[in-house]
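Lab notebook page, bench 4
Experiment: in silico fold of construct C2
Operator: M.H.
Input chain length: 291 residues
Purpose: comparison with the prior construct
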Amino acid sequence: MGVAELRRVKQLEEENRRLKQVVADLTLDKAMLQDMLQKGLRPARRREMARELVAAFRVPTRRACAVVGCHRATFYYRARRRDGTPLRMRLRELAAARPRFGYRRLHILLRREGWRINHRRTYRLYRAEQLGVRVRRRHKRASQVRVRPVTPTRPNERWCMDFMADRLDDGRRIRILTVEDVFTRECLAVEVDTSLVSARVVAVLARLVQARGAPRLISVDNGSEFYSRTTDSWAYQAGVQLAFSRPGKPMDNPFHRELQWAPPGRAPQHRAVLLGARRPGQTTGVATRLQ
């Protein structure tokens, strides 16, 4: 083999080495790009990129999908979404009526009205409409848009209930739940215990409804026991509307204020029924006046 042939072979080997290096670099770049595409892009964006490649470079669909990491079924997919405008409008109305309800409570209200949706779609629309509940440093929370309820015209049409507090002789604090008929001014029930949660409130109301029938409306304040899920679920099943007092308007529930602040010996003449007191007569104020 002559000198010219050896020089030619050496040039071919050098060119082959450069080509191998270029192919290796391109392969690495393609692997890195595909890895980024798989992690950072949604299927809809991949579909758009594949269509752009087909239109710009005149390549087959199969090759364009392989480059961007898009499945061919995704490339040919056409969305068939239903019109969600009525659902969006109703969701906004419920969120405006109950500003402290999150998407789970709003989903329950939508299901009660007959909307056939799951919680994932409710959450997606909830986020799309930017209906997130703002966190604020307040203890009282508005449950819904509140207006002053109309005056009842017959017995058992509207009740009201509230809590009072007192202390026993040994220093233990007790809570007193009172339920009254607004029309007759009759105290329907009194529940006394050291702790009264929403389940106890529902139990008292269930006993009253079984004995007297359900009212059309119950006036309450914004205590956590009244706007809890347990109380809201019971009110829905019993067909009772919960009317929450307006902000800064404690006299929307005035009869409990009259019972609470009446001096000893001059409390209104209600028919009190102590349902849960463990030590009758061993209180310092309100519970004694109720007996």
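Observations: The first helix runs from residue 3 to 40. Residues 263-291 have pLDDT under 50 and may be disordered.
Next step: discuss at group meeting.
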